[in-house]
């Protein structure tokens, strides 16, 4: 194993560790907080988190074994099962992000009727559609025997070894990425652009009220005026940064792998195996970044994490105090005798 392979293996190990811890923490927050569970986005987050954990404990270790051994990491049946799971989880992850963006769009554009438009039942129907949509392609690939170990990506995924099926497989691969990656990307752009438009409109209204107030308050201290103007600037940038993070991480993680899969269909362009594995690692890194982008940086999840941490520390302090009390009583007993 050369230095490139060692670096890619280290990247995979780091991605697995971060993904496992972060997604497990999101699950703990969902289990701990009833307020989070009562909201419709919790179903989308739960679906995304469970998919990320499944990818972390099944697909990533097999890819790591493929990178290290430079050969199929498992038997043919297990590899086909892992390829089925890989294709399903990739589509499910992309469509779950699109569902979360639709939820944000409804919440921002229709704030007064959000609870009526996005109930838990509606969220469950969206998750059910996501599963059916994501299951359709790996089921078709399984029926056509297009699942197995792909040497370019050192992983069990979509692949075709028969030259006479090259055109059919190219059409299938293009359709899969168009109806998963491209569809989700279009939904993300449309919904978040509308959210950004509404956020900027509200910022302008707040800015007008703030400027009118500053004009009326003649005796206001210059430092207070500067803080108000800085808060205006931060308010304008806050929504743009969040939306750029949502769309940017989606593109950064999935686009290299999708583009590589499409370029691979053209035999005129040779692709390095190191780049193939790196693009797969970038796709896996979405499982490690999703908990922070969609959950752990939000106020509700931060509060839930603090409550979990304080409860764990409180139990430890009670246990340690109980042990010290027991040892103290044992030391006193011989003296009393």
């Amino acid at each position: 194993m050369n230095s490139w392979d060692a670096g890619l293996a280290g990247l995979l190990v780091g991605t697995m560790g971060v993904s496992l811890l972060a997604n497990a923490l999101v699950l703990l927050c969902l289990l701990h907080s009833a307020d989070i569970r009562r909201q419709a986005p919790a179903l989308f987050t739960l679906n995304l988190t469970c998919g990320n954990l499944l990818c972390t404990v099944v697909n990533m270790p097999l890819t790591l074994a493929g990178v290290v051994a430079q050969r199929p990491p498992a038997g043919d049946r297990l590899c086909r099962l892992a390829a089925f799971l890989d294709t399903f989880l990739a589509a499910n992850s992309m469509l779950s992000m699109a569902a979360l963006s639709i939820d944000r769009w409804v919440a921002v554009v229709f704030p007064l009727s959000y609870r009526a438009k996005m109930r838990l039942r509606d969220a469950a129907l969206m998750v059910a559609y996501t599963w059916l949509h994501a299951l359709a392609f790996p089921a078709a690939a399984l029926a056509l025997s297009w699942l197995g170990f792909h040497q370019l990506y050192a992983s069990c995924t979509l692949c075709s070894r028969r030259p006479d099926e090259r055109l059919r497989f190219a059409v299938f691969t293009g359709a899969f990425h168009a109806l998963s990656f491209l569809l989700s990307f279009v939904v993300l752009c449309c919904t978040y652009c509308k959210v950004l438009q509404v956020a900027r409109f509200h910022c302008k209204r707040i800015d007008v009220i703030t400027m009118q107030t500053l004009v009326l308050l003649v005796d206001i201290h210059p430092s207070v005026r500067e803080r108000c103007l800085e808060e205006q600037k931060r308010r304008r940038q806050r929504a743009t940064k969040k939306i750029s993070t949502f769309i940017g991480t989606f593109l950064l993680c999935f686009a290299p792998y999708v583009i590589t899969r499409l370029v691979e269909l053209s035999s005129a362009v040779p692709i390095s195996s190191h780049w193939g594995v790196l693009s797969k690692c970038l796709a896996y890194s979405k499982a490690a970044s999703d908990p922070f982008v969609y959950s752990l940086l939000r106020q509700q999840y931060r509060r839930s994490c603090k409550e979990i941490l304080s409860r764990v520390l409180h139990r430890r302090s009670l246990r340690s105090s109980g042990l010290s009390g027991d040892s103290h009583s044992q030391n006193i007993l011989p003296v009393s005798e």
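The two ends are 70 Å apart (CA to CA). The beta strands are 147-150, 155-158.
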